[in-house]
Write a structure and sequence with these properties.
Length: 87
């Protein structure tokens, strides 16, 4: 494996660990047990499910939405903004 390939693999590993909780997603059936530690397979599964070209598209778009709460606080905003992970 070249130095560049090792760096890419390290970036992918850190991204997957930060954004995709393996154990919870395995328990839900999204990831298979044999995917543990295989970050390329995990990323491929995420891309296949969400229709991404690359896993790094995850979280790239800012989302604005209304979140209803059972007991909202008086200062809760009507619209919640979830910023892009890249900003």
């Amino acid at each position: 494996m070249t130095k560049e390939e090792k760096e890419k693999a390290g970036v992918l590993k850190r991204f997957m660990i930060e954004h995709f909780p393996f154990t919870a997603l395995r328990k839900s059936g999204f990831f298979k047990a044999e995917m543990k530690g295989d970050y390329e397979a995990q990323a491929a599964r995420v891309c296949q499910f969400f229709g991404y070209e690359t896993v790094y598209e995850y979280g790239a778009i800012e989302i604005s939405c209304h979140l209803s709460k059972v007991k909202p606080a008086p200062d809760d905003p009507f619209v919640t903004v979830l910023p892009s992970i890249y900003e």
